[in-house]
Fold this protein.
Amino acid sequence: MKQKKDTRFWLTSFFEEQEQTKYQYKSFQMNIENNGWFIIKTETETVKIYTPELTLIFTSKELTALNMETQKETNINGFEYLKNYIEAYKEGEQYFETEFKVSPNTLYGINAEQYVKDIHSNFFHVKHTGVYEGWEYVKKQYPIILTHKAVREFGYYSGIVNKVEEQVKKYPQMFATFDKYGYNLPPQPIVKQKPELNEKLITFKNSEIIEKIHSEIKGYFTNKEAELLTALKGEQLSEILLFPNNQNKFVEVFRRLKYNGFLLNTDTETKNWICTTFQFVKKGFAKPQPFNESTVWNNLNKGKGEPTKKERICYENVDWLPYKSPKQLEEAAQQEKL
């Protein structure tokens, strides 16, 4: 089976003035102007959309678009892109919670002003995508060239924007001048200090951990043990390594390394490293498959799709890397708050 191609479609009709005068578009536009967003609910999730154009895409089953490969005009179902948006939106929310959320003590402490300035800089100025400035670009733009990848990017940053605005609403006094901060400051992203990073692609607590984990998983990389060690040291490889089994088995090992304090990267950094360094063997597919970014992140961050005890690798007689269930981790986190 081949992976479904992410065809590029140019939404030609969105440039036509009559499209923006139609009732549905005007209704979405008015809703967003009044509330700041349009809410879409599914059976399990609720997300916000910040432009009438993107709202129209997700609620339209027949969109006139130009296939950029065939150069032929066709109709596409915009609703099919919504799932990607929702998944990435939740990832963006979790990213903010993990990397930027702080306690009320910090917000009202000596570092409060710098924290708000840092959030301001990321929200309004930093070019996170290399094109648009600030997370808030999702309030002004929409993907004119429609792809699943582009929709995921809009979803991801929309999730972050939602979390920022929740902070602003929750602490109105602290964020009273949020939109005025930093105009005389060069835009600076928040840079979290991590020990011994030195621009490595992946970073472990020390070299002993690298040797230990290499010893445990090298058996899955026959004739590529040296390359695996190079990758674990955080160096760039010139080839993709193949893990000959289910992707979740491999990813779960790095989740364990993280919550046991041996892996120093964020879940997003670890996801990026895994997805650019490894492929895996998927049942029913003749060729090696790339790791799925959404699946990897959900496994790393939430333990979603974890293999059973019987299916776990690096588990039997590996006392230094104990398994903890999501429930155990949640209980431990609650204890730390007491």
About this structure: Strands lie at 9-10, 38-41, 46-49, 63-67, 73-76, 145-146, 241-243, 278-280, 289-290. DSSP finds twelve helices and nine strands in the chain. The chain has two domains: 9-180, 207-337. Residues 207-337 form one domain.
